[in-house]
């Protein structure tokens, strides 16, 4: 996987940022905190997202505390954001509904 070109970044990142993703200062990564009604809903989201992450061989950095799930996406193999990050971020937003 290759990192996002400037053209791809210009097209892909604004919609994600509008939808709550945030660029991390000093690191080419995005982060978002999802909030659910309770632990079971949060864990269910993580389970559904994990199936796609495994299928697409792209695993997020994430943590769960009760009803919150914080997700950080970056492609470690290229050291920056890639198309896999954009794809997984979009899928997570859909899954969080």
The class by helix and strand makeup works out as alpha+beta
Head-to-tail CA distance between termini: 28 Å
- How would you describe the shape? globular
Mean pLDDT: 95
Main sheet specs: 4 strands, antiparallel
Q: What is Rg? A: 13 Å
With strands numbered from the N-terminus, the spatial order across the biggest sheet is 1-2-4-3
One letter per element, helices H and strands E, the order comes to: HEEHEEH
Helix content: 40-55%
The fraction of residues in strands falls at 15-25%
Name the poorly predicted regions: none
**Count of helices?**
3
How many β-strand runs? 4
Report on the structure:
It is a single chain. The chain is an alpha+beta fold and 97 residues long. The chain has helices at residues 6-18, 39-55, 83-96, and strands at 22-23, 30-35, 61-65, 68-73. It has a four-stranded antiparallel beta sheet, with helices on one face. Strand 3 and strand 4 (68-73) form a beta hairpin. The chain is globular. It starts with 5 loop residues before the first helix and ends with a helix.
């Amino acid at each position: 996987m290759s990192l996002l070109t400037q053209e791809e970044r210009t097209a892909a990142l604004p919609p994600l940022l509008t939808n709550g993703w945030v660029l991390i200062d000093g690191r080419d990564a995005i982060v978002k905190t999802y909030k659910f009604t309770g632990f079971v809903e949060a864990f269910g989201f993580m389970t559904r997202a994990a199936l796609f992450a495994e299928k697409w061989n792209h695993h997020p950095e994430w943590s769960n505390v009760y009803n919150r799930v914080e997700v950080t996406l970056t492609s470690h193999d290229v050291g920056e954001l890639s198309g896999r990050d954009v794809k997984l971020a979009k899928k997570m937003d859909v899954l969080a509904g």
